[in-house]
Design a protein that fits this description.
By secondary structure, the chain is α/β, with parallel strands linked by helices. It has helices at 18-26, 35-44, 60-71, 91-101, 117-125, 144-153, 167-181, 207-213, and strands at residues 2-6, 29-32, 51-53, 75-79, 109-112, 133-134, 158-162, 188-193, 201-206, 220-225. It has eight helices and ten strands. The strands form two sheets. It has a five-stranded parallel beta sheet, covered by helices on one side. Helix 2 links the parallel strand 2 (29-32) and strand 3 (51-53). Helix 6 crosses helix 7 and helix 7 packs antiparallel against helix 8 (207-213). It is elongated and about 60 Å long. 32% of the residues are buried.
Length: 227
């Protein structure tokens, strides 16, 4: 038995490894952040493996059920809607609980590497990325100011994700943080929109410039480089 952490495409369905396809076909069950999203991928590759949902709102009894399946010798595949599980999704919580409840089984957790919006954006940024800080999503409401202050004080490039609904607000708040709290600063930003998809766009420049050019549609990866 094993729990495979399977990376899936972040947009273009051809961006999947042969090993990932083999695991998805041979697994007894696929654990999905959203079964509807995963079935689009499975249908494209004619994969018939059964699916169940596992996401941030899943109750603890779902984790207990997953651990029971592993105890029974099942091979399970964990996928997120896109990219690599365990990065800004509940995959890491599941793995931590397996380690706590059944230490012997944690050795059977196996990563199947592949697409990641984080590394895709970093590779196209043009910034020195031998060291960087990843901060997930900015808070939706509370502690946003603190979040952006941490970004502005970082010694290394900072990467974070943002939704199309808040990207403009986020860029404006980020710019205001530099202007009001730390004095004028020429800070460069790369904002990657819809990576690997039909309308992929990468915006580069000062924060204010990018905020004026950006089209708030699709998912974003933002990289901030402090001078």
């Amino acid at each position: 038995m094993a729990l495979y952490i399977v990376s899936t495409p972040i947009g273009n369905l051809q961006d999947i490894t042969l090993r990932a396809l083999d695991i998805l076909k041979s697994a007894d069950l696929i654990l999905c952040e959203d079964t509807r999203e995963t079935k689009k991928l499975l249908g494209h590759y004619d994969i018939k493996t059964p699916t169940i949902s596992y996401h941030q709102h899943s109750q603890f009894k779902k984790i207990e059920y997953i651990i029971q399946l592993l105890d029974e010798g099942k091979n399970l595949a964990l996928v997120s809607d896109a990219g690599t599980p365990g990065i800004s999704d509940p995959g890491n919580q599941l793995i931590a609980e397996i380690a706590r409840v059944s230490p012997a089984q944690i050795a059977q957790v196996s990563p199947v590497p592949g697409p990641s919006a984080l590394t895709a954006a970093a590779s196209a940024s043009g910034f020195p990325m031998d060291k960087f800080i990843f901060m997930g999503f900015p808070p939706a409401k509370k502690k946003r100011r603190k979040f952006f202050e941490e970004v502005s004080l970082a010694k290394y490039p900072v990467i974070f994700y943002e939704s199309p609904y808040r990207i403009l607000k986020t860029l404006k708040e980020l710019e205001a943080t530099y202007d009001s709290s730390h004095g004028p600063k020429e800070t460069l930003v790369v904002a990657c929109r819809e990576l690997t998809k039909k309308f992929e766009t990468i915006y580069r420049g000062a924060i204010g410039q990018v905020a004026k050019e950006i089209v708030p549609k699709g998912e974003f990866v933002v990289i901030v480089k402090n001078k």
